[in-house]
Amino acid sequence: MITNTLSRAGRLVFTTPPPGLSPVVDFELDEVEGAFGLYAMRDTVGADLRLFLLDPAVFVPEYRPQLSDEHLAPIGAEDPEQVDVYVVATLSDGAPVVNLLAPILVHPETHAATQVILDGADWPLQAELISPEG
């Protein structure tokens, strides 16, 4: 099971800009009050960019992506156990969905981050989100 170790708030520095957010690489990750496992990622440069990230251990416990050395290298990790994994949450037709095909990996010690594509994986780009209560 994936267990995220990053503190409830922290700086993230992406190795390359996340898709659609170029040229920004510096973000702040804050837990959304009253919503365990939900985070708001906002840019720190005044570009007014925001994404919602979820801890998959809370919302998608069956999510176990296979992370390769190529996924881990950009953030300086040598083992999947060294990274925190988050998934991007959005709305599709008014319902919450998560992107399981392209998780965000964070090295909790250095706060280096990258978004990767899980080539050859069957994880969906838009998986329906089901509340942790059922």
**Total number of distinct structural domains:** 1
Number of helices: 2
Q: What name goes with the CATH superfamily?
A: BH3618-like
Q: What level of helicity do the residues show?
A: under 10%
**What class would the helix/strand composition place it in?**
mainly beta
Strand order of the largest sheet: 1-2-3-4-5-6-7
The CATH class label is Mainly Beta
The H-and-E topology, N to C, reads as EEEEHHEEEE
What number is the mean pLDDT? 89
Question: What is the approximate shape?
Answer: globular
Task: Write a structural description.
With 134 residues, this protein is mainly beta. It has a single domain, classed as Roll (BH3618-like). It is 6% helix and 37% strand. The chain is built from 2 helices and 8 strands; from the N terminus they run ββββααββββ. The protein has helices at 56-59, 69-72; strands spanning 9-14, 26-31, 38-43, 50-54, 84-92, 95-106, 112-115, 127-128. The chain has a 7-stranded mixed β-barrel with strand order 1-2-3-4-5-6-7. A hairpin with a 5-residue loop joins strand 6 and strand 7. It is globular, with a radius of gyration of 14 Å. The model has no long low-confidence stretch (mean pLDDT 89).
